[in-house]
Structures are given as structure tokens and as C-alpha cells.
Design goal:
5 helices; extended; alpha+beta
Length: 269
């Protein structure tokens, strides 16, 4: 297996305790099937260009500028140099500012996961001490990190022999739940018991296969079929018929009983 490329290198700091670390994204989209847009007649790839909405003519790179709209068709121009001047400079360090209880941060603030690992043997002891102390105290660390010239709040939590670092969304990126969350209707005890039974019958151990993308598998099969047919059009797979909706209000008790019975028959089969 090829070694994963390091996305970021720097230092993990907690007061006077310091160790050299590296950061690697925990997720990737490299396995996804990607397409190019082609000219059907020539088979050549198409290129995209910025077009002036008024003249309809292409605009050279030198004449492209970022603009902030302050009114209808009224923009403030911002030069790249001006934006770069206020960008944050990275000090290549993750300074843990404070710690919070492990389960006190709502999942909606979690953004992107990264693997944080010690970069050399010299810092291994300091890294392990920080990791195990957080694990024993059931806390996660909160720090700040400059990634791609953008300062991010990050969360650090022990994970196996390493530390999982999550970038966190800014407060103004997170919406508060709407009024629907405030509805607190208590279900009937009998319906609740049946629902628990249905859930228990469908309980399984977690497997990454539960999150497989079926479209990617179908695309791969389609591409394989077209390779064999040398570009010939392949018939689309038949879609399963959708159940007809009666439009009537479903009795929750009847639906639960039928669901449990159907589950029992499928398990028996």
C-alpha cells in the first residue's frame, strides 16, 4: 500500500510540551469515477472560459478581478494582492487552548476529519502523553490552525494510537434548529414498544459497506459494458416500480405490525 501524502506538517503544543506532527486528510474522493466533457463530433475535450455577460466575449486573465456586490450592478473591486495582504500567516503550530468534555460539542459543528500523527521519534513521548491524558480525562482539545490561509477552530480527540483532528464550522455557519424541533409529542406506549421491536430486529454491527455508493458501482459496470461494446450505447437498467401511494393517513399501529411481520417472513426465508 502506498504511503499517504502529508497534507500539513508542524508542531503540536500544550503549554511548554511540544512535538512535531503531520496532518493527513481522513477522507478522500480519489476513488470516485470522474468524467470529462467532450465534443461529441470530434471527441476533443472542452475548455471553460469566463465570458463577459454584456459583450459575450471571453475575458483575459489579466482583466479578471474579484468583486463584492453592494447594489444592483454596483461592485467594489478587490485585487488579489489586497486579499492576500489580510490573509493569515501560518505559524505551523497547533496550540491547544483549552479542553472541553468529550460529548459537549454538537455533531453539527464537525466539518472535516484528519489524522494527526507524530512526525519523528523525538516527539513520540510528548504526543503519547497528550493523547493518553485526554483519553483518561474524557476530554477533547480545542485549538486553532491555519489551513490554506484560513484560520480554523479545530477539535482534537484520541483515536487508537493517534489523534483525530476535526476542523470545526464557524458559529455563523451553523443554523439553529427550526420550530419543528420544539414539538414534543409523546407517542403511545404500545406504538413505542412495537417500534422498539422493529428496531431490534434490524439491529446489526456497523460496517463501512453500509455507506457504499451504489451509483459508483453501477457507473463502473456501465463503463465496463461500454468498453466491451467499444462505445456502443448500453441499455439503461430497469428501475424497480415504486409503490403506489394511496394518499390515506396510515394507521401507525397497523404499519408497525405489518413491518414486523414482513421482517419476520424475510428472516425466515
Amino acid at each position: 500500500m502506498a504511503k499517504q501524502p502529508r497534507y500539513w506538517k508542524g508542531y503540536l503544543k500544550l503549554s511548554l510540551v511540544t512535538c512535531q506532527v503531520s496532518l493527513t486528510p481522513a477522507t478522500t474522493e480519489n476513488a470516485k469515477i470522474r468524467f470529462n466533457v467532450l465534443n461529441r463530433q470530434s471527441g476533443n475535450r472542452l475548455e471553460s472560459h469566463y465570458i463577459d455577460s454584456g459583450t459575450g466575449k471571453p475575458v483575459d486573465d489579466d482583466n479578471q478581478v474579484k468583486g463584492y456586490e453592494r447594489g444592483d450592478d454596483d461592485y467594489i473591486f478587490l485585487e488579489d494582492e489586497e486579499i492576500e495582504a489580510i490573509a493569515l500567516e501560518s505559524n505551523r503550530a497547533i496550540n491547544i487552548d483549552n479542553f472541553v468534555p468529550k460529548d459537549s460539542i454538537d455533531w453539527i459543528y464537525y466539518d472535516a476529519p484528519h489524522f494527526l500523527t507524530p512526525e519523528d521519534k523525538v516527539g513520540m513521548e510528548a504526543f503519547c502523553v497528550i493523547r493518553e491524558a485526554m483519553r483518561a480525562s474524557a476530554v477533547v482539545g480545542i485549538a486553532r490552525l491555519v489551513l490554506n490561509r484560513r484560520e480554523r477552530a479545530v477539535l482534537l480527540e484520541p483515536s487508537g494510537n493517534g489523534i483525530l483532528l476535526w476542523t470545526l464550522r464557524y458559529g455563523d455557519e451553523v443554523r439553529t434548529p427550526d420550530k419543528a424541533f420544539a414539538v414534543a409529542e409523546k407517542p403511545e406506549a404500545k406504538a413505542l414498544t412495537l417500534m422498539k421491536t422493529l428496531i431490534e430486529k434490524r439491529r446489526e454491527e456497523w460496517s463501512p459497506e453500509m455507506t457504499q455508493d451504489p451509483v459508483q458501482d453501477k457507473l463502473a459496470a456501465l463503463i465496463k459494458a461500454k468498453k466491451k461494446g467499444r462505445g456502443k450505447k448500453v441499455a439503461a437498467p430497469q428501475k424497480e416500480p415504486q409503490p403506489v401511494q394511496s394518499g390515506n393517513v396510515i394507521n401507525i399501529m397497523d404499519a408497525l405490525k405489518k413491518s414486523i411481520e414482513a421482517n419476520r417472513k424475510s428472516k425466515g426465508a
